[in-house]
C-alpha cells in the first residue's frame, strides 16, 4: 500500500475533480464516480484501437506495450487503466474481446480490472496519476471525435 503526504493526496483529488468536471462539461455526460459506466454507441475495432492509442499516448507508452509479456509496473498499469476505461465507456465489450486486444486471456483481463479498481480505491498515488492522465486523454479524444462527426453532418 502506498503512503503519501496530505499535499499529494490533495493534488490527486484535485486532478480527479478536474477530470470529472471536464467530462461533465465537454462530453455532457453525468459523472458521479470514476468507475461509473457510460455506454457509448458503435463499438468497433477501430474505436477500441483509437481509445487504446489515446491511453498509450497519455502514458508515454506504445501500442505494442499492451501485448508485451513484460510485467513491469508501467506496462501492468497501462493495461489496467485501459481495461478500466474500456469497460467504463464500452461495457458491452466482453472480457475476451478486451483480452484479445492485449493478447491476454479473459481471466487475466478480469484480474487486471479488479487490481486496477483496487488501486484506485486505495488511492495508490502512481496509479491515480496515470489513470487521471489517461482519462483526460480519453475525454479529449471522445470530444474531438464528437466535434469531427458533427462537422461532417
Overall mean pLDDT: 82
Count of DSSP-assigned helices: 7
Low-confidence stretches: 27-37
DSSP helix fraction: over 70%
Alpha-carbon distance between the two ends: 50 Å
What can you tell me about this protein's structure?
By secondary structure, the chain is mainly alpha-helical. The protein has seven helices and no strands. The protein has helices at residues 6-27, 45-58, 64-67, 73-89, 95-101, 106-121, 125-152. Helix 2 packs across helix 7 (125-152). The longest helix is centred in the last third of the chain and has 28 residues, at 125-152. The radius of gyration is 15 Å and the shape is globular. It starts with 5 loop residues before the first helix and ends with a helix. Mean pLDDT is 82; it is low at 27-37.
What are the SSEs and their pairings?
Elements: H1 6-27, H2 45-58, H3 64-67, H4 73-89, H5 95-101, H6 106-121, H7 125-152
What's this, in brief?
With 153 residues, this protein is mostly helical. Helices cover 71% and strands 0% of the residues.
Features:
153 residues, mainly alpha, 7 helices, 71% helix, 0% strand, globular
